[in-house]
Backbone:
């Protein structure tokens, strides 16, 4: 039997020898080469078919993916063409991995777009769970290690998949290996064009992932590599429970999924899944390698949970670590969102000199406040425009900073705050992205969940500060004093730690490299990311 790919065909089934569809008259051999045998699946923007390549000996099977634009307007067709070319380009770039289907061909016909891929004989993990039941913890860990190695390769090619879920992961019958399929929602993180400087892609109305498996920042059209990490974590929950995300309860305030009570896994593995599923991007593992590292060191993380276990403090000396016992929080802007804000703001300042900051009023921040709360603002088409005299052009001192914080302001990104004495303050969840904080005094301050991405903290005093789960990626901490600071769960990727004093600091669960630590000062009281005591390096 041959099958007609015309979406409007009333009776697509035809005899093998037929050259044209008996029902609608459409040609049955695509590109005079591919004979479609049967449909495999159907989605909102296309369908996939099993076919044979008649141009090769033995007529090998392949998969033909047909993109079907839902309208005939030039704009929609152009968007569909770009989407088609993007997927073809991506598959051509990454398809040499043994666990990703190879791209064999692509072509256009009658305003419809076709991709031809390697056929993978196997069943999806969704089918597997339905037929065999949920996975054990060990089976889930095996899955995680295998799929994360594939994900790490994809991310190394600067590609975000954006639609990882059980239905898009096949187990190949030939060798029992996992294969990641359906790259129709991929985003090229480096080259994808944007429209009108809004940060939204030209494919806003096209596939952006599957609800429940995609995290909030992805559904807001701001996917990052950590978005795929979230989707893999939610896939693990599905494998452990057999329940889709929609069948699980959610915290109405934070959006956190309540999955733990439906599983029977160890506390250490639950901690890893919990961090993969963090609502806040910068509290989540930032890469597949970070998760693999956590799995390798799982035994060292057994006592690290959402609340730190109380430990008997060591004698009071400047080098002693301080362990805190407060809960984690996560309702803040992600660093990627804040970075996008700053980029948009700079562009807008170049066009309109009287405007210094543009904030998307839809973005939530800590405590449910708007990102501009506490600063004068004007509204234009639903967008908050922060006027000159606020943010970096304002002259901050200790009194004005504390007063602004008391009034609800939590956004001090790109501000000049060098030399301020903010000792012992509670600045939990505050945004200091790209702020200048040289020689600032944060000694003993509560800076949990604060965002210091790209901030300049040269010679800053952070002794005994609580920086639990803080985001310090690419921050400059050269010669900063972090003796006795709590950096558990903090993200220090690419941070400059040259000459940083980490004696007695708690880095348990922190994301930081050995090379970075080698440039810092540590001692035997320093708690390393694996939970073990360190030595001066």
Residues:
């Amino acid at each position: 039997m041959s099958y007609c790919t015309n979406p409007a065909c009333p009776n697509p089934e035809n005899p093998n020898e037929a050259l044209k569809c008996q029902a609608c008259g459409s040609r049955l051999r695509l590109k005079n080469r591919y004979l479609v045998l049967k449909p495999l699946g159907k989605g909102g923007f296309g369908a996939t078919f099993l076919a044979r390549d008649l141009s090769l000996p033995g007529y090998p099977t392949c998969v033909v993916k047909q993109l079907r634009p839902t309208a005939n307007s030039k704009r929609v067709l152009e968007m569909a063409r770009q989407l088609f070319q993007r997927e073809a380009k991506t598959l051509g770039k990454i398809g040499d991995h043994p666990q990703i289907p190879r791209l064999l061909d692509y072509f256009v016909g009658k305003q419809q777009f076709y991709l031809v891929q390697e056929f993978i004989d196997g069943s999806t993990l969704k089918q597997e769970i339905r037929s065999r039941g949920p996975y054990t913890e060990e089976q889930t860990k095996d899955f995680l290690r295998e799929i994360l190695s594939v994900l790490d390769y994809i991310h190394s090619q600067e590609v975000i998949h954006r639609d990882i879920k059980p239905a898009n992961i096949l187990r190949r019958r030939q060798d029992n290996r996992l294969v990641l399929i359906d790259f129709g929602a991929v985003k090229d993180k480096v080259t994808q064009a944007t429209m009108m400087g809004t940060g939204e892609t030209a494919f806003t109305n096209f596939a952006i992932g599957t609800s429940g498996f995609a995290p909030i920042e992805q559904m807001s059209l701001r996917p990052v590599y950590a978005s795929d990490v979230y989707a893999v974590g939610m896939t693990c929950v599905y494998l452990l429970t057999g329940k889709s995300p929609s069948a699980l309860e959610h915290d109405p305030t934070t959006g956190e999924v309540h999955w733990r009570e439906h599983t029977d896994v160890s506390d250490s593995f639950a901690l890893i899944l919990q961090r993969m599923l963090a609502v806040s991007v910068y509290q989540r593992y930032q890469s597949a390698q970070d998760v693999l590292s956590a799995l390798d060191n799982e035994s060292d993380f057994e006592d690290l949970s959402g609340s730190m276990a109380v430990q008997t403090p060591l004698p009071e000396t400047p080098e002693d670590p301080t362990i805190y016992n407060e809960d984690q929080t996560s309702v803040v802007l992600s660093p990627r969102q804040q970075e996008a804000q700053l980029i948009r703001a700079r562009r807008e300042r170049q066009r309109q000199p009287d405007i210094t900051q543009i904030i998307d009023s839809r973005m939530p921040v800590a405590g449910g406040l708007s990102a501009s709360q506490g600063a004068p603002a004007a509204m234009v088409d639903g967008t908050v425009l922060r006027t000159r005299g606020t943010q970096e052009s304002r002259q901050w001192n200790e009194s004005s900073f504390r007063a602004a914080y008391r009034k609800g302001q939590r956004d001090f990104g790109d501000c000049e705050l060098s030399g301020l004495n903010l000792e012992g303050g509670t600045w939990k969840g505050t945004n200091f992205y790209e702020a200048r904080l040289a020689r600032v005094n944060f000694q003993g301050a509560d800076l949990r969940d604060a965002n210091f991405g790209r901030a300049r903290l040269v010679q800053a005093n952070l002794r005994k500060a609580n920086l639990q789960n803080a985001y310090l990626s690419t921050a400059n901490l050269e010669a900063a004093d972090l003796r006795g600071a709590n950096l558990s769960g903090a993200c220090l990727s690419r941070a400059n730690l040259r000459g940083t004093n980490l004696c007695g600091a708690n880095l348990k669960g922190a994301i930081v490299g050995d090379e970075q630590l080698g440039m810092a000062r540590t001692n035997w009281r320093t708690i390393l990311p694996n939970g073990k005591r360190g030595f001066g390096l």
Observations:
- Residues 188-207, 303-340, 349-393 have pLDDT under 50 and may be disordered.
- DSSP finds ten helices and 18 strands in the chain.
